[in-house]
Write a structure and sequence with these properties.
Oligomer: single chain
Radius of gyration: 27 Å
Helix content: 40-55%
Largest sheet: 5 strands, antiparallel
Number of helices: 15
Structural class: alpha+beta
Distance between the termini: 25 Å
Strand order of the largest sheet: 6-7-8-5-11
Number of strands: 13
Shape: globular
Amino acid sequence: EKGYKSDIQWHWGSRVAGVVEAEREEDADDCGIYLEVEGKDGAVSKMGPYDAVVGADGIRSAVKTYVDKKDRLGKKNQSDAIYSGLRVQYALAPDTDDNYPDFLDYGADGTEYRQYFGTGGYSLSARIGRTDAEGNRVIQRMICYIFQDEGYVGPFKLPTKLRQILGWNDNAGRKATNDRQNDNNEDDENIDWKLESNVELCRGNMLDRIRSSGMPSREVIPVIEKATTFFEIGVYFHSPFAVEKIARRSGRAARAAGRRINRLTSILADPSDPDVLDLKKNWSKIIFGKDKMELEEECQDPLLAWSREASPGHFCSLLGDAAHAMPPFLGQGANQAVQDAYMLSLAMQTYNEGVRLSNDSSNSDVLEQRNEMVGLLKDYEDRRWPVTTSITVKAALLGYLETGGTQWLANFRDSFFQVMGKVGIARKIYIDGATPKV
């Protein structure tokens, strides 16, 4: 609401197409970060300069493309998102109680989610509400079916020859499960939740899959048979491990270890060296402490995974799905994005307050301010990365476990969930993920 009442410019229906570093201009007003913004008509305009850019533009973030690769063109088809090999089909039907058996009665005022497991997938049923264009409350029945793409084992696509040996169609996977005959990754992910045009094809596919899974379906099939709306999405996520940055960090650590060994060897080689006495007093600092070169390397290249310095003192940072898109099976995407936003805004507030106090005292040091911002962004990542990584890994494992691709996996899943539920571990995992950690 504050944004609407202020002079903030809103660009509805536009998307960030790329990030552009400011060229070295003599005029200080030209310093900063520029954005290439694509409007509804497809025209791209350059906006800026900005002191900071926060990329909250989803799993196909153009800002992430820049942060990860320093690639100025964050095109739609450029994404490091990993296809999980899991898919979700949705069916929505009008909520007319006369059309459904009594056991599908959720009550007039409430709703609940009901989960049914089968071999190779599971379903959720619910009674949900939405508001239509006229502002009227519309109640619908929803069934979503989560299943393993038969062309994949986890996130790995099976080779064509192996699919033929297993007797699977050469087109098994992805586009064969819906009516969008398009190999484009973005269309498969369906980030805009596009509706399927061939309703009967989708209904038939969904019913066939559920019936063949052997799950209890008497509460599921009546809704699918009366559904008027279908859509399907592929489940994608980001790897929380930045391989390139891990390699650079490992190289830096190896160089630092080499310098420590050389320093220690040179000290011990000459017992008369005054540093021998210093070694006895401060051995832990000499062996494990960071030397000047290491501190300079960290300052010049802080190895941030969710941020990048576009130009001196100007940063691009990520939050939410742009930073750590995760599978939806723990329901934590929005929750973690809100916590990211809180932590990042706190870092910016701390920085701005420090700059204000520095300017007031006439002791402004640009390099010192820049280093402070680097430290705050590093602290933001250090506090949020472990939490979101843990949830991403747990959610992926949960998705593969819940869909139980073979009969023995389905049997293991049922026994595992029963035990984990009784001892309270399942509840702890869900509550722990939902509890804010800021």
